[in-house]
Design a protein that fits this description.
The chain has a single domain, classed as Arylamine N-acetyltransferase fold. It has 7 helices and 14 strands. Strand 7 and strand 8 form a beta hairpin. Helix 3 packs across helix 4. The relative contact order is 0.14. The mean pLDDT is 95.
């Protein structure tokens, strides 16, 4: 709880879930620097906890959502990981391309603290309902075989784009191991080809993508070119509170 600055009451409620989710995405960066530096990513809870909580790092989807799932389960939420296929324009990625979490209370909620640039608050699994988030709008559509489609639009737009497809079957962490290896080793993997670190802020987002640092704040955009690895490590420390020893 200290890692994300949560000081509220722990209760099985959407209020508690929303606060946990919001504080997580604004405290722990989505980052895959271990792939860039060729450090193996292990999907074992103790290893993830040591990396993200003890060493004050971030992580990518399997790490962050699996750790968040463990936290929610510890509190007492009825929840489970699910397999998600991400859209690249109209093309869907493979099964286990991404991990999200379903939380069941009076309603079902989609939780995802490990995507990067996505919703800040949990999304209610209610088909056709447009849900306003801090920076964007989201909509859930029910599709074939009981799956759900998540779509997203900018605040000032009525055009929703496909973000990902959710398979509602509960999954175990071992089912994500193959894709976790692909993400780290395949030369076509986004994380092999790019270095990425990003975190939401109260009024925008901070992002490192390859050799560029960008900060958006109240519709203002600030950019900086990253000259070398020394500057990269300095930005990770000052802007994301991540300290990597090289």
């Amino acid at each position: 709880m200290e890692r994300i600055g949560f000081k509220g009451n722990q209760s099985i409620s959407i209020r508690c879930l929303s606060e946990l989710h919001r504080k997580h995405v604004m405290s722990i960066p989505f980052e895959a620097m271990d792939v860039y530096f060729r450090i193996p990513i292990q999907l074992e809870l103790k290893a993830i906890y040591d990396k993200v909580v003890v060493k004050n790092r971030g992580g990518y989807c399997y790490e962050l959502n699996y750790l968040f799932y463990a936290l929610l389960s510890h509190i007492g939420f009825n929840c489970y990981p699910v397999s998600v296929r991400i859209y690249n324009e109209e093309n869907l990625g493979p099964d286990f391309d991404h991990m999200s979490i379903i939380v069941e209370m009076e309603d079902r909620w989609l939780v995802d603290v490990g995507y990067g640039d996505l919703f800040v608050e949990p999304i209610k699994l209610s088909a056709g309902l447009i849900q306003e988030d801090l920076f964007k709008n989201y909509k859930i559509e029910k599709v074939h075989s009981g799956n759900f489609l998540l779509t997203e639009s900018l605040k000032n737009s009525n055009t929703f784009i496909k973000r990902y497809m959710i398979d509602m079957q509960p999954r175990k962490i071992d089912e994500f191991l193959v894709q976790n290896k692909v993400k780290q080793k395949d030369r076509d993997s986004f994380f092999v080809k790019n270095r990425i670190c990003t975190i939401a802020t109260q009024d925008g987002r901070k992002t490192i993508l390859n050799n560029e640092y960008k900060r958006t704040s109240s519709n203002q955009i600030e950019k900086m070119y990253i000259d070398d690895e020394k500057q990269l490590l300095r930005l990770l420390k000052t802007e994301f509170n991540i300290e990597l020893q090289r």
